[in-house]
Design goal:
Layout lengths: L3 H31 L2 H27 L19 H28 L3 H31 L3 H17 L8
Helix pairs in contact: 1-2, 1-3, 2-5, 3-4, 4-5
Length: 172
């Protein structure tokens, strides 16, 4: 049986994962409306991945005798300025999610819930990958600067990256 404080923390993280999906959907829509179809595809794939993270956690909470709950979500932003600002926000959000996963891990360890701590290892490793990917994308976008040709090639690279992901369903 999962302890109440662990269940509450995981329910908060379920909310964070669901909100992440909505944020990435809003960002994908913005990109698509601005002609960044590769970035849109990448972000649509990210949104699907976040839904999978949420579902995995829901099943875990329920399998451990808890009750995974859906909570109200804030409305995501609708305007991101430019593609650099957008991916800076993506990176900042992934850093926030990393901190929140770490809080879940701390609560599990404090409660001596080693099963949940083990379960969370996958999320911890996933966040290392997510932050690294977003830093790499940002580095490339910054290198391109204001070059329309450079941004075009990066957008194409994002399209290829989205297509190579197993979760990818494509958006544009």
């Amino acid at each position: 049986m999962i302890k109440e404080k662990v269940e509450n923390q995981l329910n908060n993280q379920i909310k964070n994962e669901e909100h992440s999906s909505r944020i990435y959907l809003a960002m994908a829509s913005w990109c698509e409306s601005k002609g960044y179809n590769g970035a849109a595809d990448f972000l649509y794939a990210q949104a699907e991945e976040e839904k999978m993270h949420m579902s995995k956690m829901i099943h875990y909470v329920n399998d451990r005798g808890g009750h995974a709950k859906m909570m109200a979500l804030d409305k995501p932003d609708e305007d991101y300025g430019d593609i650099v600002s957008l991916f800076e926000k993506v990176l900042a959000h992934e850093e926030f999610i990393t901190a929140e996963i770490n809080k879940c891990y701390e609560v599990a360890l404090d409660a001596k819930d080693y099963n949940t701590a083990q379960f969370l290892q996958w999320y911890i490793e996933e966040q290392v990958e997510e932050e690294s990917t977003m830093n790499g994308i940002l580095d490339k976008i910054r290198l391109a600067g204001d070059s329309k040709g450079g941004i075009f090639h990066i957008d194409k690279e994002l399209e290829n990256l989205a297509a190579s992901r197993p979760e990818s369903t494509g958006g544009a």
